[in-house]
Amino acid sequence: MLTDLNVIMLGPPGAGKGTQAARLARLWQIPHISTGAILRDAVKAGTALGREIQSIMESGRLISDDTITRVVCERLREPDAAHGFLLDGFPRTVPQAQSLDELMGDQKLVVVEIALTEETVLHRLASRMVCSECGTNAQDDRDVATCHDCGGTLVPRVDDAEQVVRERLNVYRRQTAPLIDYYGKSPTYCRVDGAQMVDDVTMSIARAVDACRRSDPRGV
User: Fold this and answer.
1) Least packed by Cβ within 10 Å: which of 26, 34, 87, 105?
2) If one looks up domain 5-116+161-215 in CATH, what number appears?
3) What global pTM score does this model have?
4) Residue pLDDT, tens place only, 186-209
5) Would you please indicate which residues are annotated as catalytic (active-site) residues?
6) Where are the domains of the chain?
């Protein structure tokens, strides 16, 4: 078990952040904190905020910095995240990253970028499926019709239609890609090729994070 390991996953839509985060959180025995899951729970609850979030998600836009930062910061204060966490889907903007830095104080973050070309993103998302019951993405290496978590039926994601994906990529370039510059000079930033097979991406990330820990064992 690794303790005091705080990891952020970056990458464009379709890079496999959720799949990799779930795998690595089990490996490292730290909680996988998915902002997508947090927001889907709000949508499923049917609250006013949930309906607003659903409209934004389906159009490919991003939730406001203030709203998502408040949700994530509250989650990070829960006891299971006291000795480490893996963030999937946050931060998505530089202001969100700055807010996270304030919350973390002297604690270090390992930042993993899963790199993928836009052409590969479009090809990959064209066939991506999601569970109609729990909202979990289908695992990339499984050719089945039911969810690996709850057994629900897999359906195409509403926000994976090509027009919506292209808008999401535009949003990513404008708002999220600047995080690469924000974190890129840190000694705890690493970049892996997301076009590899799923298992190879997992191993590449694990090796890169381990290298970061060895380079600064006291601070990561």
Assistant:
1) 105
2) 3.40.50.300
3) 0.75
4) 999 999 999 999 999 999 999 999
5) 17, 92, 128, 157, 168
6) 5-116+161-215
